[in-house]
Design goal:
With 487 residues, the chain is an alpha/beta fold. It has 2 domains: 2-57 and 390-437, Urease, subunit C, domain 1, CATH 2.30.40.10; 59-381, TIM Barrel, CATH 3.20.20.140. Helix content is 36%, strand content 22%. It has 16 helices and 19 strands. The chain has helices at residues 86-90, 100-116, 137-150, 179-196, 199-202, 218-231, 243-253, 257-263, 293-301, 309-313, 322-327, 343-358, 366-381, 413-420, 447-468, 475-478; strands at residues 2-13, 18-29, 32-37, 46-49, 53-57, 59-65, 119-125, 153-156, 159-160, 165-167, 173-175, 204-210, 234-239, 271-275, 304-307, 331-334, 397-401, 426-431, 434-437. The strands form 3 sheets. Strands 6, 7, 8, 9, 12, 13, 14, 15 and 16 form a 9-stranded parallel β-sheet that branches. Helix 6 links the parallel strand 12 and strand 13 (234-239). The chain is globular, with a radius of gyration of 22 Å. The termini are far apart. The model is unreliable at 80-95 (pLDDT under 50).
């Protein structure tokens, strides 16, 4: 079926980068784009009127927790007790490993939100229980199945590690090392990849996911890299996301996390390192001001940095710095991490916090973060058919309504999108030529009922954490509200 979208601000691709085509058209036939330009006189089966709207390539959410977790309860600096004692970790207090019906509700809710947030492609993960050496395989299976059934495109993985961390009562970080458990998790990660790679009409692909740099031994990292090469899989991993991890790497290897991964030849264009908020460029790490050695290694390796600005901004932190990474040639992609899954909001935070990081309004521009959310994500995944509107690319398209008064002043549609719009303005999302969001909603999903069920799951998680935490602190002490709640 051949469909034409016409009349809006089309963000086309000229072979090198994006270009705006006012009043342009996008034509797709089944799952592929066949024409992008100012007009089209050929035969079509359906025409979509997009006057006053932005016609954008689908966004690539490079890192998103696709299971409901308790992260948002800790907004405004409220930190639950996650680092109390060895017994806390051993007993797996917190019960973050969703299973059964709660897992299915969680995955469905998160995948619906990912689609409504403009992600035609996502890299969904789950939050792993603190004592786990690997996530329950059911989690990756349910996420893959849910994404497939809802029509999404996703890169799914089974995560594993060889040394879950814990904190002793005096605040020191320690690790439970079990090499056999880590390698067993890797084996199951490869088995999952083999089973689900290319499923659901090739919309579901897979990766390997050693969960966190500091919780993976040198042997497990080497084995993961070898398995990735053998099976043609990409790797993603939380890396340099805390000062604790940064200094643990210095203690363990005499190198920063990035230096170790670079010098061990782990980093290359098939690797996505997530967060990297603690590099030699971050003054809090204690390196000389302006030390760019980590960033130089990232650029030279071809690895991608998955940037999730909102989750760090809400805790008073930011990447040092998006602008410097970009100027030095590092491939940057954008993810939402935890709820909400609003890719427009993430682009806005990436731009604003990038300006703050360098105290320069020119340091990061709307075009830079839009590129990261589209072309940067596509490059990370090795997909020249995603993140762009061009002939031969996948028909993954987002239509954003610019007719509201809050987005009515349009001089540059990309600036309007990044600085003024939100996911509520996303009207249509198309994946593989099929609408997965229409008029702002996912077809055949009772979103109100799903939201109620999801919130109930979230509240059960919170209360499970409260009842099991080893300190005996109350709900108010662990998760305080903005104002007292009566009754």
């Amino acid at each position: 079926m051949r469909t034409k979208i016409q009349g809006g601000y089309v963000i086309g691709f000229d072979g090198e980068g994006h270009a705006v085509i006012p009043g342009g058209v996008v034509v797709f036939d089944d799952d592929r784009i066949v024409h992008v330009g100012r007009s089209y006189d050929g035969r079509v089966d359906e025409t979509i009127d997009a006057r006053g709207k932005l016609i954008s390539p689908g966004f690539i959410n490079i890192h998103a927790i696709a299971s409901i977790d308790i992260t948002h309860f800790r907004t405004d600096g409220v930190r639950s007790v996650l680092r109390t004692s060895k017994s806390y970790i051993v007993d797996d207090v917190g019960n973050l490993d969703l299973v059964g019906e709660d897992l299915r509700t969680s995955a469905r809710f998160c995948m619906v939100e990912l689609l409504k947030g403009g992600a035609t492609t996502s890299v969904p993960i789950t939050a792993m229980g603190p004592s786990r050496f690997e996530a329950p395989r059911e989690q990756a299976e349910v996420i893959a199945q849910t994404a497939g059934e809802l029509g999404a495109r996703a890169y799914v993985s089974h995560h594993f590690r060889s040394g879950p961390r814990y904190w002793t009562e005096d605040g020191a970080v320690r690790f439970h090392w079990d090499e056999e458990a880590g390698l067993a998790g890797l084996k199951r990660g490869v088995e999952f990849a083999k089973e689900y790679e290319g499923s659901y009409d090739d919309r579901i692909r897979t990766m390997l996911f050693p969960y966190q740099f500091d919780t993976c031994s040198a042997d497990l990292l080497e084995a993961t890299k070898q398995a990735a090469r053998e099976h043609g899989l990409k790797i993603h991993m939380h890396t340099a996301q805390s000062l604790t991890e940064f200094h643990e790497s210095l203690r363990r290897y005499g190198k920063t996390p990035i230096q170790y991964l670079y010098e061990s030849e782990f980093l290359d264009s098939d690797v996505i390192v997530t967060h990297v908020t603690n590099s030699t460029l971050n003054p809090l790490t204690g390196y000389p001001k302006g030390d760019t050695s980590d960033i130089e290694m990232l650029a030279d390796s071809g690895a991608t940095v998955a940037h999730t600005p909102w989750i760090y901004a809400e805790s008073g932190r930011f990447l040092h710095s998006f602008g410097r990474f970009q100027k030095m040639g590092v491939n940057l992609a954008i993810g939402t991490d935890a709820f909400p899954m609003d890719m427009i909001m993430e682009m806005r935070y990436a731009a604003i916090m990038g300006k703050v990081a360098e105290a320069d309004p020119r340091a990061v521009k709307a075009r830079d973060v839009f590129n990261a959310a589209t072309l940067g994500g596509a490059r990370a995944l090795g997909r020249a058919d995603l993140g762009r509107l061009s002939e031969g690319a996948k028909a993954d398209i987002v239509v954003v309504d610019f007719t509201g008064s809050h987005v009515a002043l349009v001089d540059d549609p990309i600036k309007t999108l990044v600085y003024f719009a939100s996911e509520r303005d996303i009207e249509t999302v198309i994946v593989d030529g099929k609408p997965v969001v229409e008029e702002g909603h996912v077809p055949n999903v009772d979103e109100a009922a799903l939201a109620r069920e999801a919130n109930a799951v979230n509240q059960r998680q919170k209360m499970a954490f409260v009842s099991q935490n080893p300190t005996g602190k109350s709900t108010d002490e662990l998760f305080s509200t903005s104002f007292p709640v009566e009754g």
